[in-house]
Amino acid sequence: METVTKAAGIKDKIFKRISMGYIVGTRVEEAIEACRKIEPLGFSATICPWNNKGDDFRIVADAYIEAAEQIIHHKLNCYLSIKTPAIGYDESLMNEIVSVARKGKLRIHFDAQSPDTADRNLSLFEKTLSDYKNLSYTLPARWNRSLRDAEKVIEMGIPVRIVKGEWADPADPLKDPEEGFTDVLSALSGRARHIAVATHNVPLLKRCMGIVREKENSWELEQLYGLPMQTVRMARGEGIPVRFYIPYGRACLPYGLSMIKKKPEMLWWVIRDLIRADSFKIS
């Protein structure tokens, strides 16, 4: 029993250390300071308060409102990313966030989470878009529905972010995320208003560059704070704009224990993250 307890404690410490590699701190002021430091280097940003599962919807909405106010106050080249399940898809809370964003013409981005949240996320997005146009949306490459949703995004005329996605599509759990990524990008290329390619995978970025160069596109590389910098250097060398996704708050651990039970190979990801040295840090 004692051995099990010690092992659990070690795991907790490891995961806490990993999660802290992806956030700039616990307060919005730390995220704002990070944005102010990277702007002179030619980088733009998006910030997102990370909450824990079960947090009160009102508290999460207030964190989004505070973030919006701070971005506007400091006149940053930055937009706000939100997770609508964290506010219970509540239209009244969403309207409060929009009310603040409207004052500074701030873009609000709808992040993607698990497949079971997709319909309600998109529904709230469409309702919000009818009142406030400065919105953008995420399409996960691992979901079959993303190709259909890409057509909606194009018709809406909004910016879009492509991600691999943390959760597999239950209808197609073995779907190759990289193939899905390039399929979605190909569908958007030359048709979407603006595309953010969110990856730190060098070969995938090379493939993406080949696709977007075939047609006229407005696009950028977007990368999570704390990840390796090879893709950033590649993008900068090719004149591609780079934006950092800067989370703060109480970290949501990127590789939860429950996920590792389902996918034991993810333990390698944990070890890799602990020893990585080529990551972007703000001092």
UniProtKB/TrEMBL annotation:
Keywords: Oxidoreductase. One of its GO terms (biological process) is L-proline catabolic process. Residues 193-250 form the Proline dehydrogenase domain. It comes from the Bacteria. One of its GO terms (molecular function) is proline dehydrogenase activity. It comes from Caldithrix abyssi. This is Proline dehydrogenase domain-containing protein.
